[in-house]
Amino acid sequence: MGFSIRLILSFGALVAFPAEAADVTGEWTATFVTADGQRDYTYVFRQNGAAFIGTARSQDGVVAIANGSVNNKTVWFIENVTVEGRRVVFEYTGELVSDTEIRFKRQAVGTPYAAVQFVAIRTGTP
After folding, report:
1. What does the alpha-carbon distance between residue 62 and residue 65 come to, in Å, rounded to a whole number?
2. What is the pLDDT of residue 6?
3. What is the dihedral of CA 33, 36, 41, 46, to 10 degrees?
4. How far lies 16's CA from each of 13, 95, 114, in Å?
5. How many angstroms separate the CA atoms of 67 and 14, rounded?
6. How confident is the model at residue 20, as a pLDDT?
7. How many Å apart are CA 121 and CA 22, to the nearest integer?
8. CB 101 within 8 A of CB 118
């Protein structure tokens, strides 16, 4: 079989069988600093295909995360919290760099505050 045909078949296989979403199911911990000081978080994710649900626990309590999704190694979700009586939406975008590490960027939507970057470490399974 010629090189061109092998190359076409290999490319066809890549298109026909796209990479599966990474599995983020489990417990993840992170510490980062915001304008309000140091925040210690524990995230618990339960993934089903490319979607996931879960919780975010911090000094302020536990909230459910929304719209969790994983596309290959990109992780995305929203955390809705109430701060001084106002609803604040935090958007998380992350990259799964290994089975035990996600590099996140957390941004308060619609605010002038700078995004916070941090690393979450997998500490267990639920």
Report:
1. 10
2. 46
3. -110
4. 5, 24, 40
5. 28
6. 62
7. 15
8. no
pTM of the full predicted structure? 0.81
Check if the beta carbon of residue 52 is closer than 8 Å to that of residue 69.
Answer: yes
Neighbours of 91 (CB within 10 A): 16
Q: What is the Cα–Cα distance from 21 to 112, expressed in whole angstroms?
A: 32
Question: Whole-angstrom Cα distance, residue 80 to residue 63?
Answer: 7
CA angle 49, 29, 87 (to 5 degrees): 80
Q: Report the DSSP beta bridge partners of residue 27.
A: 44, 124
Condensed to tens digits (0 to 9), the pLDDT of residues 34-88 reads 888 999 999 999 999 999 999 999 998 999 999 999 999 999 999 999 888 999 9
Side chain identity at 41, as an amino acid letter? Y
DSSP state of 125: -
